[in-house]
Design a protein that fits this description.
Elements lengths: L4 H19 L13 H11 L6 H11 L5 H22 L9 E2 L2 E2 L1 H4 L2 H20 L7 H15 L4 H11 L13 H26 L4 H28 L2 H4 L5 H5 L4 H5 L1 H18 L8 H12 L3
Antiparallel strand pairs: 1-2
Length: 308
């Protein structure tokens, strides 16, 4: 991690944590009758458990390219993180990946119970759009609508939720089937939806907040797509080579499930080569922004080299 990247990641995480803490306070907001204590505790467990806060960082850094201050972008960043945390809570459920650990702590369904975990995820998902609808997300209604649409598309049928469905099908989870031997194109589609879509929209959100022109927005989308693909390959490598202590969650689960990944299909050495190419592609996509993109370029390298 470069000297410049570490403090910027930390600053983005602290700013996002503070915004999430306010959003997850116990007192009801206007239009709410009350906030059940157990539900709020479970939501805070799932959302305030730390982590790299990479997606909020991408929102803030992408918005900064267009002169948007961190405080003006943090509500949108927190909304994206709410969707990410909801997805982790639901992914960890017994009916999905059945994980006991997340970020080195008990998963929400282990710390509370399965029903509470489902509702905590539901609460975080809906909270994301509550945040984006407020004027502190952006003073322009048109910008807020664009943010809502972009995040909904990334999180929904053709994005993260659809990708999770494809992932379950690939594991042979339906009708007693065996794991599917997916071709490379199908693996890339699945991963671009399940993992990549939320990383892409994190970059796109910065462009929306900055009311960027089409050329700048397209550059950030290209950066996000390459970054998202790199992130997933790095994750697959960690599942093979990482330890529970370092990664903070279970490892070796892809192989146990017979899941087709780029690592299982290409082998570790070739997958590492693809990973290096994707980092170079992501960094090249930032060329239209000139010297202002050093931190984002470093983030692409960090995603590939991370150990957790």
């Amino acid at each position: 991690m470069t000297q410049d990247l570490a403090p910027r990641l930390d600053a983005a995480a602290a700013l996002t944590e503070a915004r999430l803490s306010r959003a997850l306070a116990g007192a009801p907001e206007d239009g709410e009758r009350l906030r059940p204590e157990r539900l709020m505790a479970a939501m805070r467990h799932g959302a305030l458990a730390g982590g790299k806060r990479l997606r909020p960082f991408l929102v803030l850094e992408s918005a900064a390219l267009f002169g948007v201050a961190p405080q003006a972008a943090v509500t949108a960043a927190a909304a994206v993180e709410c969707v990410h945390c909801y997805s982790l809570i639901h992914d960890d459920l017994p009916s999905m990946d059945n994980d006991d650990l997340r970020r080195g702590r008990p998963t929400v369904h282990k710390a509370f119970d399965e029903a509470t975990a489902i509702l905590a995820g539901d609460g975080l998902l809906t909270l994301a759009f509550d945040l984006l609808a407020g004027e502190d997300a952006h003073p322009s209604p048109a910008v807020r609508i664009a943010l809502v649409r972009a995040l909904a598309r990334a999180a929904g049928i053709g994005g993260m939720v659809g990708g999770q469905m494809l992932d379950l099908a690939a594991e042979g989870r339906f009708d007693g089937g065996a794991p599917l031997a997916l071709e490379l194109g199908a693996i890339r589609d699945l991963q671009a939806m399940k993992t990549g879509a939320l990383l892409v929209v994190s970059c796109e959100a910065g462009a929306i907040l900055g009311q960027a022109d089409e050329r700048a927005r397209a550059a950030l989308l290209a950066f996000g797509r390459a970054l998202g693909a790199a992130f997933q390959i790095a994750d697959d490598i960690l599942d093979v080579e990482g330890s529970v202590e370092a990664v903070g969650k279970g490892v070796g689960k892809d192989a146990d499930a017979g899941k087709a990944t780029l690592v299982s299909t290409l082998g570790l050495d070739e997958a590492r080569g693809v990973l290096a190419d994707l980092v170079a592609e992501a960094q090249a996509a930032l060329a239209p922004f000139g010297a202002r993109t050093g931190t984002l370029a470093a983030a692409a390298a960090f995603v590939a080299a991370r150990k957790s």
